[in-house]
Amino acid sequence: MTPTRSLALVLAPTFAAVLALTGCSTSSSPSQSPPASASMSKEPMASEKPMASEDPAAAAAPGAYITLADYRGNEAMYGNGDVVLFFHADWCPTCQATEEDLTDNAAAIPAGLTIVKVDYDDSDELKQRYGITTQHTYVQVDADGNELAKWTGSMTSADIAAATA
After folding, report:
1. 67-89 pLDDT, tens digit each
2. Which of 11, 92, 129, 149 has minimal Cβ neighbours within 10 Å of its Cβ?
3. Phi-psi region of 63 (alpha: psi -120 to 50; beta: other; left: phi over 0)
4. Could you report the per-residue pLDDT of 91-100, keeping only the tens digit for each?
């Protein structure tokens, strides 16, 4: 075994542990921030996982969990309801638990609530706009993209609905 390979075998698990411990807190305390004034940016996502429904007509149904690209393509359709941006990272265990609940229980998302999956790793402009410093952060926005509320933690669709009420 080469010294480089030995070092990689030691550092890889350490790096993964540091990411898991520092990036995935389980705090769920809500906080308020001042509204942002600019409209949502058109920053592209590098990768998008298929959501519960890729059919635009089905995504338009009340209560939806959709990708940022779907939301941007149909913003007017979702403007009258509650919209929550879910800053998600594929490598985050807390995010994975929330996503599993959202996809497994998509029918339980209340009418008028749209949860938008935002790739934490590829959305620097949105993270800066809303002051996002950790994944599994949720930002409720109005039809103009202004922040109404912000909170973090592992959540179910019922928890998100309760936070937007």
Report:
1. 999 998 888 887 778 999 999 99
2. 11
3. left
4. 999 999 999 9
Question: Alpha helices of 24-119 — where are they, by DSSP H?
Answer: 56-59, 68-73, 75-78, 93-104
31 forms beta bridges with: 150
Place of tokens 């609940």: 101
Q: How many CA atoms lie within 13 A of 5 on its CB side?
A: 2
- The predicted-structure confidence for 28-38, as pLDDT tens digits, reads as follows 334 433 333 33
β-bridge mates for residue 149, sequence order: 140
Residue matched to tokens 């934490």: 120
Sequence length of the chain is: 165
User: What is the value of pTM for the model shown?
Assistant: 0.64
- Domains annotated for the chain, with CATH where assigned, are 3-164 (3.40.30.10)
Which SS3 state, helix, strand or coil, does residue 151 take?
A: strand
Rounded (to 5) percent helix, strand, coil in the chain: 40, 20, 40
